[in-house]
Amino acid sequence: NPLCPTAFPNQLQLGVAMAEPPPATPCVMCLAPATKQCSGCRSFWYCTRECQRKHWRNHKDECGSVQQQPGENTPEGLLKEVGERERQFHAVTEIVKKQRETGSNKNVWVTRYGDNMYEDLQDARNLTGIKDQLDDLDRAPAHGEAALNVLFSAAEGVGRAKTLAYFEEMKGKKATQEAGGGYAA
What we know:
This protein is mainly alpha-helical. The protein has helices spanning 49-59, 75-102, 115-125, 128-138, 144-178, and strands at residues 16-17, 36-38, 45-46.
């Protein structure tokens, strides 16, 4: 996953246990060989602290209550899950596209969840053309809805680009795995 968080709240505490992983345990985020395990639930393995931080965004709500299923943390299981998420992403994108084409409310966006959404909003806000548009709209408070449309449309594009890049990266790892080359770091 190409996302690299730059700052985390001080209260965010990630535990990394240095247990010995089973042979060939892949990182849940990038499928590289893992050496660190979530200390809260011990269900997920990571190659680096950065991968654990990326995963924490979605994992923090379930950590401690996760019951790992057999085979779920294998390269095949992880790649199958990524494939299912990609299918869902494209299905949701199509639903939103149809809503925009046929619905009376065009203010519908596909965004990533939680901290990822906030990151995408910040990245979108920093895009030169978008920043200029938002600055112009900020000077005219009556255009709040227009500013919202600009910002979320840009954030949707940023999130889509990051998501598609992640899926492409995982396809490369899947091809390497299927070719018998092990994990691509």
